[in-house]
Specification:
alpha+beta, 3 strands
Length: 170
Amino acid sequence: MARRLPNRKDLRAANDAAENRKKAKAKEEEELLEDEEDDDDDDDDDDDDDDDEGDDEGDGDEGDDESADDDFPESEDDDDGDDEDRPKKKKKKALKKPKKEAKEKKPRKTRASKVVRMKLVWGVFSNSNQRVAVFDYPKKDDANEHAEKLTADKKTGGPYFVQPVKELIE
C-alpha cells in the first residue's frame, strides 16, 4: 500500500513541534547550568562557614564525629549497613524560578468594524466581463432589454448578459 503524502499543515505542525522541543531542551540545559553555578557559589560559602564553626567548637578534643552526627542526624531505625542498600536520592538541580506576578491584562478595546452599506444593482456585461451599463435593482426588465438589444446589434457584437452587482451606498 502506498504511503500517504503529508500535506502542508502536517509538515508545519511537525516542524513547529520539533522546534518547541529544541527550545525546551535548550532552556532546561541553561537552567541547569545556572543552578549549578548558583549551587557552586553556595557550596563555597557553606564551606567557609563550616570551617569557622569547626574552629569555634574545637575544645582540644576531636569531636568531628559528634559534630558530623549533629549536622546530619540519623533516625533511630537506621543502621550503618542500611545506607548502602538504599539507593541514593538524586537532588533536583533544576529549581523552578519564582514566577513574576501576573500583570493585570488591560481590557482591549474592540475595534468596531465600520458598517459599510451596500446596494444591489443590475449590471449589463459584455462577453469579456466589462460592465457596459448599470440599472437599479427594481429595473431588472430594463437591464435585460438593454442586454438583448446589444446582443442583437451587429456593430457591438458578442453576447451580453445581466448580473447582480453590489455597490457602496454613497
